[in-house]
UniProtKB/TrEMBL annotation:
Region (Disordered), start-end ranges: 1-20
Highest taxon in the source lineage: Bacteria
Keyword set includes Oxidoreductase: yes
Alphabetical list of Gene3D superfamilies matching this protein: Aldehyde oxidase/xanthine dehydrogenase, a/b hammerhead (3.90.1170.50), Aldehyde oxidase/xanthine dehydrogenase, molybdopterin binding domain (3.30.365.10)
E.C. code: 1.2.5.3
Record protein name field: Aerobic carbon-monoxide dehydrogenase large subunit
GO terms for MF: carbon-monoxide oxygenase activity
InterPro entries assigned to the protein according to its UniProt record, in alphabetical order: Ald_Oxase/Xan_DH_a/b, Ald_Oxase/Xan_DH_a/b_sf, Ald_Oxase/xanthine_DH-like, AldOxase/xan_DH_MoCoBD1, AldOxase/xan_DH_MoCoBD2, AldOxase/xan_DH_Mopterin-bd_sf, CO_Mo_DH_lsu
Domain spans labelled Aldehyde oxidase/xanthine dehydrogenase a/b hammerhead: 26-135
Length: 787
């Protein structure tokens, strides 16, 4: 790599260091908990010790008598304000503070506002709640049994725990294909409940100004504009009197998409006391009560010829949604984008049905780099392909190569109706196999097996669908999935880009400046990115589902091109030629055929604000706005190879190598893309080997700290070996596809496939995540948890 590539390029796309890091590495970021306002009070939430119980009484008198307590709020108080229940992102309702029952351990029951954080916490102890415990539903498979306790008896006419049935694909055609297949491999598998666990927990500082009637909320949100609209709809506040500010965010990973009870209580607390109220949850509260992810019980069937041509896929899923259906999926997609479970393969037919159920666990669902459930879908199909390879006695790389979609099949319409925009899958898989020296690895493995050593090689090939909308097909609570951008160019040629999406660590202040820099030839250092403040940015649906680059990134390019076009008109007046005679090169318009006669974008910006007689169509500056409604999703993809060594006696898994070849189209900042991939790969190792949110049979949450809920560290991660192919998206203005969740989507299957491959001499065909030493040891003893 040359020095120029390694360090900041003067402008545009390239490995530029992150602009935001200057403040982050100096400890100068401003997170929600850094916000301190005059007279600010502190809130704390009283949570349910039971997973399922009726509330028969709450006595708050002692808490109210605490000298430092300013207010105590219960569900009944909120009911009086018509705020006891709030809509969820999936159109269900969720208790802000429980009134009738508690439905998961850790559910919010009361909110105390006090002069300091310690007093607020102390006062929680003074609240006396009478609970009448009810039997809980902990296992999703129990939820639909006729005698299962009904969790949501608040919903009128509700007599069971069923939420939705959703299906996709062609059932008859799929059954047909299965009937004539030589081989059908079936596998049950669980994608366990995990938690995004960002370093910064969730919180809010709410400030209701009674004089101006304006509510300002500094809050941990990935979607400030959507939050503002929801506050307006729920609380009946006028939307222009609500300002949501999402300052620096210490990791989101989906955890900060939804609205939590604590935010709403902080707003109510501020309204009642007339003072700003801060609420920050602690680690245990975060792990217990905010967005989970996954919890999909899946049965997959794959049909093939004896020669290894995959014919069809048939899948049933039981989805555990917890006590309130709070998943953030586009309205028409109750199972998210699970419909892409046909993966990267050319098959004849596919069918899948998903049933969602209530259980006595925390709500959530759009979390942990999920790509709207594509993580589950990719895990399913990539595990199934390996199970098929096992049953056929075929090499999993060869089986994949034989079935991958070919470049000439793009744009490819999948059997479940998704239009994959572009790809050269075989080239990407070949690159990964070459980087890994696959044949040598297999030879090494064979030699080790002779000696009784367990070494495994796992593959995964994934296709993602990121960048929701278009708005016609995708909305959340009726808000169409499009994004806005505004670009102002100051007289001296410096620019401000205002975005509706919001970074939680992905480096938007750098990459979005780079997009504009590339389009206009202004240095990225001269372009400020403003985001995360609804008073300062245009409306849009925010950052999740790796949609920022596909949607807001496109908006940034389009708005920059609009500025360029306006600049062209001004330049034509400056140069006294027709705009048709002008040609663009990065940073300037010049007269066709006369390179010397040109004006830089900076000169043009100054002239646009100056005394030049401006032509028709330009009022006095170059500024432009745009709303980008994507015509389709973008489909990044990748091929991963994982190598593990397994100690059969201890069950210890060592991830020795990990080769990841990602294709996210044009890379705006390759260094940031690699960082995103590194993080996602670590996530994947964590989920495959150690992460699960466990519950006991009473519904007690057993993962409430980082001693119990394990996150991967550098100790468990190998030195990642990254490669790339570049297949631009044909419909994205700069050919970029999203990448933020790719590695989390693709890597768990690669790791599990590697571990199962290592255990193959012991006859293991499948084992469920997380493959902890105990789980691997049991599998190696011939009693896999599930086969
Ligand atoms: N990028 C690029 N070239 C591309 C694609 C992306 O340079 N072809 C850059 C982007 O400009 C952006 C970053 O990579 O700076 C990620 O872009 P994108 O894939 O569009 O994803 P988002 O910005 O929408 O981020 C969301 C995604 C999600 S949904 C989760 S979950 C997750 C993830 O990002 N959460 C993260 N990565 C995370 N990284 C950090 N540090 N913190 C989180 O909370
Ligand atoms: Cu699905 S976790 Mo991300 O989309 O914020």
């Amino acid at each position: 790599m040359t020095a120029v590539e390694e360090h900041a390029t003067p402008m545009g796309h390239g490995r530029m260091h992150r602009k935001e890091d200057a403040r982050f590495i100096r400890g100068r970021g401003t997170y929600v908990d850094d916000v301190v306002l005059p007279g600010m009070l502190h809130g704390a939430v009283l949570r349910s010790p039971h997973a399922h119980a009726r509330i028969t009484g709450i006595d708050v008198s002692a808490a109210k008598a605490h000298p430092k307590v300013r207010a105590v709020i219960t569900g009944q108080d909120l009911a009086g304000l018509d705020l006891a229940w709030m809509p969820t992102l999936s159109g269900d309702v969720q208790a802000v503070l429980a009134t009738d029952k508690v439905r998961f351990q850790g559910q919010e029951v009361a909110f105390v506002v006090a002069e300091d954080r310690y007093s607020a916490r102390d006062a929680l102890e003074l609240i006396d709640v009478d609970y009448e415990p009810l039997p809980p539903v902990v296992d999703a498979r129990r939820a639909l049994e006729p005698d299962a306790p009904v969790i949501r008896d608040d919903l009128e006419g509700r007599t069971d725990n069923h939420i939705f049935d959703w299906d996709t694909g062609d059932k008859a055609a799929t059954d047909d294909v299965f009937a004539r297949a030589d081989v059908v491999s079936t596998q049950d598998m669980l994608y366990p409940r995990v938690h995004p666990a960002p370093l910064e927990t969730c919180g809010a500082v709410a400030d209701m100004d009674k004089v101006t009637g304006k509510l300002t909320v500094w809050t941990t949100t990935q979607a400030p504009h959507a939050h503002r609209t929801l506050y307006a709809l729920v609380a009946g506040l006028p939307e222009h009197k609500i300002r949501i500010i999402s300052p620096d965010i210490g990791g989101g990973f989906g955890n900060k998409v939804g609205i939590y009870s604590g935010y709403v209580c902080a707003v109510v607390g501020s309204t009642l006391t007339g003072k700003p109220v801060k609420w920050m949850e602690d680690r245990s509260e975060n792990l217990m009560s905010t967005s989970f992810a996954r919890d999909y019980h899946m049965r997959g069937e794959i049909a093939a010829t004896s020669g290894g041509k995959i014919l069809g896929l048939r899948v049933t899923v039981l989805a555990d949604h917890g006590a309130f259906n709070g998943t953030a999926q586009p309205t028409k997609f109750p199972a998210g984008f699970f419909g892409v479970f046909t993966g990267s393969y050319d098959i004849e037919a596919a069918y899948c049905s998903v049933t969602g159920v209530y259980t006595n666990k925390a709500p959530g669902g759009v979390a942990y780099a999920c790509s709207f459930r594509i993580t589950e879908a990719v895990y399913l199909v990539e595990r199934l392909v390996d199970v098929l390879a096992y049953d056929l006695g075929m090499d999993p790389a060869e089986l994949r190569m034989r079935n991958l979609l070919l470049p000439e099949q793009f744009p490819y319409r999948s059997k479940t109706g998704w239009e994959y925009d572009s790809g050269d899958y075989p080239a990407t898989l070949r690159t990964a196999l070459e980087m890994a020296h696959y044949d040598e690895l297999r030879a090494e493995q064979a030699a080790k097996r002779e000696r009784g050593e367990l070494m495994g090689i796992g593959l995964a090939f994934f296709t993602e669908a990121v960048g929701a909308g278009p708005r016609k097909h995708m909305d959340i609570l009726g808000l169409g999935m499009a994004d806005g951008a505004e670009l102002r160019v100051h007289p001296t040629g410096k620019a401000v880009l205002r975005l509706s999406c919001q970074s939680q660590g992905q480096g938007h202040e750098t990459t979005f400046a780079q997009i504009v820099a590339e389009e206009l030839g202004i240095s990225p250092e001269d372009i400020d990115v403003v985001h995360g403040d609804t008073d300062q940015t245009p409306f849009g649906l925010g950052t999740y589902g790796s949609r920022s680059t596909p949607v807001s990134g496109a908006a940034a390019a389009v708005v920059a091109r609009r500025v360029r076009e306006r600049a062209k008109i001004v330049a034509s007046a400056m140069l006294e030629v027709s705009p048709h005679d002008l040609e663009w090169e990065k940073g300037r318009w010049f007269v066709r055929g006369d390179r010397e006669a040109g004006r830089t974008i900076q000169e043009i910006a100054l002239a646009a604000h100056g005394d030049l007689e401006l032509p028709e169509g330009i009022e006095g500056h170059l500024d432009a706005t745009c709303v980008y409604n994507p015509p389709n999703l973008t489909y990044p993809f990748g091929a991963y190879v994982c190598v593990v060594d397994v100690d059969a006696d201890t069950g210890q898994v060592k991830v020795r190598r990990f080769v990841a070849v990602d294709d996210c189209g044009v890379r705006i900042n390759p260094m940031i893309v690699e960082g995103q991939v590194h993080g996602g790969l670590a996530d994947g190792v964590g989920m495959a080997l150690m992460q699960v949110m466990p519950f006991d049979e009473d519904g007690n949450h057993l993962g409430g700290s980082f001693m119990d809920y394990l996150l991967p560290t550098s100790m468990e991660c190998p030195s990642w070996e990254l490669g790339q192919t570049v297949t631009p998206s044909p419909h994205h203005p700069i050919g970029a596809k999203g990448v933020g969740e790719s590695a989390t989507v693709g890597s768990p299957a690669a790791v599990v496939n590697a571990v199962v491959d290592a255990l193959r001499p012991l006859g293991v065909r499948h084992a469920d995540m997380p493959l902890t030493p105990a789980a691997v040891w049991r599998a190696a003893q011939g009693s896999p948890i599930r086969t």
